[in-house]
């Protein structure tokens, strides 16, 4: 402190106040020295002010500093405030602030008793506070709502509040109101819990343990990924749900990975215990659909009551082995329910995602999920994240699994509060979960609980954990089960009777044994999960059913009416002049039938007609409103004021919702979210678009584990559409391929549809087909880039009105089938290149003798249609497959067998030739010229060669 300040403080405390008043209205109106003092002070001051409204703690603090200092013997009695006192108070204020910020580092959150290393930031000497100062009185406690006390007393209070069994990370939050609220609530974390709640908590712990012990004794050595050690998750979720229901929640989504899942399914989600035991018994029911899954991946949904008897619908999404991916699916499910059933009211449906410490800190998708919190297209009003931090990941120590201090550090990205809690402290956990609910409902943000616990056994029950964590498991061996630990606490501190608690536990064991006996004696069979509500009304369809024609037609008048509506803009809306010319006016021409409809218009009409029939449409993708190639412009931006307008929403029926979302730059979580949304909103149309098709491989886990296999594993029906721009245009290795071959490799058992269209009417009918049938299947669509506006791909209003979806398109140019000597099968863009070539003089002579047959739907393959088409061409000499992708990519390795069968069944002797690029390590060459040279050679080979050609 400078000499100037000394004299000022000694002579005039009022002056300090005046300076602070000036600083408060304009920090630059005071000198740098004052500024730095007040800046250091301000954080705590703000919190203190909010802690007790209408009280200026600053005034009080200064008053007290004055009183204090005048009482101190060694200072001048004439001064109402002195420099030393003020300096001391500032040091203590900094010390208090340090505890608020870093106190959690010292918290006793580990139930296994490991002490946290001392944090230097919390040493008094770090702030220049010496041993002699310990008995000095300080007012700095006012900053956190405490009274004047000796420094050593304050220090103990700080330890009690910030380094107890709960550590709080609040100070990184930017909003002062939020911070103040959290600190005030946190100060009440040890508030007594009523006896009824304690009893419920005990019941829940006893039930959890009973189930594990029953399975362990009845199904010895069977994998169950027991919850033991992390049992506290169960009452934590119950406490949260009880409070959330009081605040308006009617539904709750709970997502969890394998550990503890069986227990959660039965004890929280309401899956009947006999169903679980029949799964352990393993007798499949005759009518069981598909390949099914291991029991700890199944989901469930039921209506049940919270502790205090409020009704709640609770569901757990199905989950594959891949950790953390289900988080995004759960969020999509939650959002769908909020949108569908409660008109977007986020208070009605809430969600909890449970994580493991290693997975939560290691998996990249966590970051993508977390980042969605406040985004308009994804926001669900806040999610509760509970990390079951059992301090080991399979066999890996935390020091090898993260660089971050905590497994929850990703929470800071969204400025969300984090609480680290010792899982042995169930009463504090209850208070924390009530606080979580209150916070979520007040601030609509995510809330994180780092539940520090342990894992009783190895990664699974047959694993020996002491191979890798011998010391940790010596401690765990002597640790009581959570229900026993809590019973000990209840009997010693809360007058519960030990025998009564034991009787509760024994009753659970006896009841569960009785269920087991029933399952055994009745030889019960595994039953398929039937979803509640919409999805349960839909069928599971076979490949054959998928090939039946779908009714997608609408009257021409209706289509025209909606087409006109799409082009209409409000008078107050000013479109970008360029768009007004090339999009709006062109679309008007299309709507009036003066111009053929391009891809964008046909796509928009699919949405508009569905909305008009009462279906909902949700399209999410990177820049989806405009479309990567500027073809969509479904949402226009006002050129004058930046407001947005989505004309198709004007076509919607009252209850049909439209959401066209420009997404965050994520593929994995973004696609997972739409999957979850599509499962829930089974009747609506849900689409995810890749910026370019190749980016979809960033979501490969979602594609493999959910989209392609969800139905056969879980009987889960959904019709998510993936729009994946695909096609080789000389743009290099990436951006050319959506990896068609990988989708085709995944096709079996009628699991999805993989298509590559060449005509705009096809996108219209295919999108309508998605929701007008009585079953749902994912649709993987290779979408155009260069031919979005090609006249060859354009359609007419009549084709939309009276046409239908075509799995295979015969060559309509061919007047006389008997003249055809060459039949070229292909899919997508290359077929248009072939038509272009046949129009050129060079190939004029081939025009009548070459038929181009487009396989618009590759899977399921319409064998009968293909045979019937080929059979027309009785004089065919050359049959080939043409593709622009390299031989090891595209559809070739999938289609060759299908075509071989088509040829055989058509009674033709030919073999199938291949016309395309050779096998390559990348989908496309990097040099544009090289691309065109190769493309020409492919076309030439296809139109001329009498044998396979690999370029
Ligand atoms: C994405 C993914 N990678 C690897 C695995 C294999 N695996 C299963 S459990 C596990 C450890 C998980 O540790 P943690 O997140 O702490 O949860 P815990 O099992 O300890 O509850 C691993 C690596 C997996 N299931 N998912």
* Shape call: globular
Bound molecules: thiamine diphosphate
Uncertain parts: 1-14, 40-56, 73-79
Instruction: Give the strand tally.
Output: 25
Q: Calculate the terminal CA-CA distance, rounded to whole Å.
A: 81 Å
Beta-strand fraction estimate = 5-15%
Number of helices: 34
Tell me, what is the CATH class of the largest domain? Alpha Beta
**Biggest sheet: strands side by side, in what order?**
3-9-10-8-7-4-6-5
Per CATH, the architecture of the largest domain is 3-Layer(aba) Sandwich
CATH homology superfamily name of the largest domain: Thiamin diphosphate (ThDP)-binding fold, Pyr/PP domains
How many structural domains does the protein architecture include?
4
Description:
This protein has 951 residues and is of the alpha/beta class. The chain has four domains: 3-164, no CATH class; 195-462, Rossmann fold (3-Layer(aba) Sandwich), CATH 3.40.50; 553-802, Rossmann fold (3-Layer(aba) Sandwich), CATH 3.40.50.12470; 808-950, Rossmann fold (3-Layer(aba) Sandwich). Helices cover 42% and strands 12% of the residues. The strands form five sheets. Strands 3-9-10-8-7-4-6-5 form an eight-stranded mixed sheet, sandwiched between helices. The radius of gyration is 34 Å and the shape is globular. The chain starts with a helix and ends with a strand. The site of thiamine diphosphate (TPP) has 15 residues, from helix 13.
């Amino acid at each position: 402190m400078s000499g100037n300040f000394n004299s000022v403080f000694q002579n005039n405390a009022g002056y300090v106040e005046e300076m602070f008043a000036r600083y408060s209205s304009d920090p630059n109106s005071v000198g740098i020295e004052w500024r730095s003092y007040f800046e250091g002070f301000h954080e705590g001051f703000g919190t203190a002010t909010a802690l007790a409204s209408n009280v200026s703690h600053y005034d009080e603090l200064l008053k007290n500093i004055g009183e204090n200092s005048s009482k101190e013997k060694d200072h001048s009695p004439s001064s109402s405030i002195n420099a030393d006192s003020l300096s001391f108070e500032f040091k203590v204020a900094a010390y208090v602030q340090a505890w608020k910020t870093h106190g959690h580092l010292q918290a006793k959150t580990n139930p296994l008793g490991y002490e946290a290393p001392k944090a230097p930031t919390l040493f008094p000497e770090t702030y220049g506070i010496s041993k002699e100062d310990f008995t000095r009185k300080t007012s700095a406690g006012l900053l956190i709502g405490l009274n004047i006390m000796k420094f050593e007393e304050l220090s103990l209070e700080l330890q009690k509040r910030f380094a107890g069994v709960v550590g709080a990370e609040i100070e990184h939050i930017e909003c002062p109101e939020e911070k103040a609220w959290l600190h005030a609530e946190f100060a009440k974390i040890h508030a007594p819990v009523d006896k009824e709640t304690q009893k419920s908590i005990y019941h829940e712990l006893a039930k959890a343990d009973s189930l594990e012990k029953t399975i362990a004794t009845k199904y010895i050595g069977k994998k169950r990924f027991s919850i033991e050690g992390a049992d506290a998750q169960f009452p934590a979720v119950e406490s949260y749900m009880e409070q959330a229901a009081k605040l308006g929640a009617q539904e709750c989504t709970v997502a969890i990975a394998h550990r503890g899942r069986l227990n959660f399914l039965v004890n929280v989600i309401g899956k009947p215990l006999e169903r679980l035991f029949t799964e352990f018994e393993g007798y499949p029911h005759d009518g069981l659909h598909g390949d099914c899954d291991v029991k700890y991946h199944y989901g469930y949904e039921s209506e049940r009551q919270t502790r205090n008897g409020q009704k709640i619908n609770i569901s757990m999404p199905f989950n594959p082995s891949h950790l953390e991916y289900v988080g995004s699916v759960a969020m999509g499910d939650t959002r769908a329910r909020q949108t569908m059933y409660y008109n977007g009211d986020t208070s009605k449906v809430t969600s909890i995602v449970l994580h493991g410490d290693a997975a939560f800190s290691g998996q990249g998708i966590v970051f993508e999920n977390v980042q969605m919190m406040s985004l308009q297209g994804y926001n669900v009003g806040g999610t509760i994240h509970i990390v079951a931090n059992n301090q080991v990941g399979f066999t890996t120590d935390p020091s090898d699994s993260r660089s971050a201090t905590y497994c929850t550090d990703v929470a800071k990205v969204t400025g969300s509060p984090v609480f680290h809690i010792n899982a042995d402290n169930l009463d504090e956990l209850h208070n924390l979960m009530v606080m979580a609910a209150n916070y979520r409902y007040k601030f609509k943000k995510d809330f994180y609980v780092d539940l520090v616990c342990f894992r009783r056994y190895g990664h699974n029950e047959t694993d020996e954990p002491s191979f890798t964590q011998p010391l940790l498991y010596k401690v765990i061996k002597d640790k009581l089960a959570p229900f026993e630990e809590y019973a000990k606490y209840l009997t010693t501190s809360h007058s519960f009777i030990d025998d009564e608690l034991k009787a509760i536990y024994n009753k659970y064991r006896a009841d569960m044994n009785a269920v087991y006996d029933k399952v055994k004696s009745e030889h019960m069979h595994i039953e398929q999960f039937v979803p509640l509500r919409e999805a349960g009304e839909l069928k599971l369809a076979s490949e054959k059913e998928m090939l039946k024609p779908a009714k997608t037609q609408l009257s021409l008048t209706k289509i025209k009416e909606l087409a006109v509506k799409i082009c209409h803009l409000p008078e107050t809306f000013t479109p970008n002049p360029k768009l007004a010319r090339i999009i709006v006016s062109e679309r008007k021409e299309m709507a009036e039938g003066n111009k053929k409809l391009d891809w964008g218009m046909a796509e928009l009409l699919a949405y508009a007609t569905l909305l008009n029939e009462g279906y909902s449409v949700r399209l999410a993708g990177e820049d989806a409103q405009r479309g990567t190639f500027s073809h969509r412009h479904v949402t226009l931006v006002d050129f004058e004021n930046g407001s947005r307008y989505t004309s198709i929403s004007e076509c919607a029926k009252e209850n049909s919702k439209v959401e066209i979302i420009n997404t965050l730059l994520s593929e994995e979580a973004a696609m997972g979210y739409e999957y979850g949304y599509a499962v829930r909103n089974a009747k609506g149309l849900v689409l995810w678009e890749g910026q370019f098709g190749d980016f979809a491989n960033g979501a490969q886990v979602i594609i493999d584990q959910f989209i392609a296999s969800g139905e056969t594993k879980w009987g889960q029906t959904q019709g998510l559409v993936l729009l994946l721009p695909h096609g080789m245009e000389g743009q290099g290795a990436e951006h050319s391929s959506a990896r068609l071959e990988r989708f085709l490799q995944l096709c079996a058992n009628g699991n999805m549809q993989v298509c590559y269209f060449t005509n705009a009417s096809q996108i219209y009918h295919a999108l309508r087909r998605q929701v007008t049938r009585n079953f749902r299947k994912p649709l993987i669509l290779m979408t155009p880039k260069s031919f979005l506006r090609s006249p060859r791909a354009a359609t007419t209003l009549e084709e939309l009105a009276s046409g239908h979806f075509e799995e295979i398109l015969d060559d309509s140019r061919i007047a006389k089938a008997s003249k055809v000597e060459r039949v070229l099968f292909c899919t997508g863009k290359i077929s248009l290149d072939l038509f272009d070539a046949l129009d050129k003089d060079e190939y004029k002579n081939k025009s009548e003798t070459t038929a181009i047959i487009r396989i618009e739907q590759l899977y399921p393959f319409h064998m009968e249609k293909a045979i019937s088409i080929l059979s027309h061409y009785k004089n065919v000499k050359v049959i080939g497959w043409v593709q622009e992708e390299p031989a090891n990519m595209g559809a070739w390795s999938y289609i060759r067998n299908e075509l071989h069968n088509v040829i055989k069944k058509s009674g033709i002797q030919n073999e199938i030739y291949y016309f395309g690029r050779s096998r390559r390590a990348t989908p496309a060459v990097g040099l544009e010229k090289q691309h065109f040279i190769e493309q020409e050679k492919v076309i030439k080979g296809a139109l001329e060669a009498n044998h396979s050609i690999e370029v």
